[in-house]
Design goal:
311 residues; alpha/beta; Nitrilase/N-carbamoyl-D-aminoacid amidohydrolase; 7-stranded mixed β-sheet; 6-stranded mixed β-sheet; 6 helices; 25% strand
């Protein structure tokens, strides 16, 4: 009887230790995928299916690429959003986003709220936003965060739109930085070109992680930026970055797609995409804010798993 009691106590202790260890770590996911510019319904279905897969693999925080619901640019970089009378680069053909942009709250935030509640996860919701309260309406490059309780808990408008493509439609954000205290730590939101200025703006907020949707376009191979320059940029701020970049369906003659990444507070790449085309989910298990040591933790061993082709 005494031996049985000792065995039961040992099992209870082991279960408690495992629960404590699980609470100390969280699995995050960056979803890398393409979008069809203007196909809001199709893009949304693809993204929701990939979120379902990430959650099934244990991810609790899931980041999607920049403007992935509406589409950022056409995959050949020939078509861009343009408002009437706004300047556009000669390399682009303009397309009016008025009938495709969404309000906050709106159809996409509501559908992802329902999904997040069912899956018990945090998900970023990135799209072109329209503010119809303004006259004329204003358009923003927006990302929202929905929670496991099915609530919209953060609403961020890109503070520094990339001038080259976004001068034809995007108004600079007017909501400042946006934070939310999850059970794992404080997260902030930023979008692509913001990275050059936003880390300093978040410094007083003591982030645990920056959730970072991306649609990168560059003059050179992106490995130098994603593997070296971006980690060096992040390192002095001592928090994680979960970056979901766009991809394309087939090879394109320009640089920037692929290379989605998770970077540690020490400025180390702990997970990186292995593909450039189609859909891929990048996973990493990282330390929660309560468990990691300031300015030093790199998180646990990370993994990258190729997702299914776009659905």
């Amino acid at each position: 009887m005494k031996q049985l009691t000792i065995l039961i106590l040992a099992l209870v202790g082991a279960v408690a230790q495992c629960a404590e260890q699980d609470a100390a770590n969280v699995k995050v996911a960056a979803i890398q995928c393409s979008s069809a510019m203007g196909d809001v319904e199709g893009n949304r279905r693809k993204l929701m299916a990939l979120v379902e897969e990430a959650a099934a693999h244990g991810a609790k925080i899931i980041v999607l690429p920049e403007a992935a619901i509406t589409g950022y640019l056409s995959q050949d970089l020939h078509t861009n959003w343009q408002l009437k009378g706004w300047p556009i680069e000669q390399t682009y053909t303009g397309r009016d986003p008025s009938s495709l942009a969404e309000t906050v709250p709106g159809p996409s935030t509501q559908q992802f709220e329902t999904l997040a509640k069912r899956l018990r996860v945090y998900v970023t919701v990135p799209f072109v936003e329209i503010d119809r309260k303004s006259d004329p309406p204003r358009f923003f490059n927006t990302v929202c965060l929905v929670s496991p309780t099915g609530e919209l808990v953060a609403h961020y408008r890109k503070l520094t739109p990339w001038p080259y493509p976004e001068k034809s439609w995007a108004t600079p954000g007017d909501r400042g930085v946006q934070c939310y205290d999850t059970e794992y730590g404080r997260v902030g939101l930023g979008i692509c070109f913001d990275i050059h200025t936003i880390l300093e703006k978040y410094q007083s907020q003591h982030l645990w992680a920056l959730l970072y949707p991306i649609a990168w376009v560059g003059d050179n191979h992106p490995a130098e930026w994603f593997w070296h320059q971006l980690p060096q940029r992040l390192a002095p701020f001592h928090h994680y970055l979960i970056g979901a970049n766009w991809s394309v369906d087939a090879p394109q003659p320009w640089f920037g797609y692929g290379f989605s990444t998770v970077i540690s507070p020490a400025g180390e790449v702990v997970a990186s995409a292995k593909s450039l085309h189609g859909s891929e989910i990048i996973y990493a298990t990282i330390l929660s804010a309560k468990e990691r040591k300031p300015a030093s933790a790199t998180g646990k061993e990370a993994s990258s798993t190729r997702g299914p082709k776009a659905r």
